[in-house]
């Protein structure tokens, strides 16, 4: 059985509308925290490569630590704290 092309176009349009509603209804903090968790969890690492996965996790954790230390140092130099 072949589907009507108009019906599949309507289904694709409806799915796109649902995706836009889902994206627009997310809170700013919730979506940002989700992306940060995916980033620091190395969700973009190749599947099955444990060394790459842990290398990315360690590198990203160390970079976060470096940013915190540099922010503290800058605040100390500016006599903010």
Verbal overview:
- It contains three helices and no strands.
- The protein has one domain (5-77).
- It is mainly alpha-helical.
- The protein has helices at residues 5-25, 28-40, 50-77.
Give the tags.
81 residues, mainly alpha, 3 helices, elongated
Question: Would you kindly provide a brief summary of this structure?
Answer:
The chain has 81 residues and is mostly helical.
What class do helices, strands and sheet pairing give?
A: mainly alpha
Overall geometry comes to elongated
Number of domain units: 1
Ends apart, CA distance between termini: 72 Å
Give me the secondary-structure topology.
Blueprint: H1 5-25, H2 28-40, H3 50-77
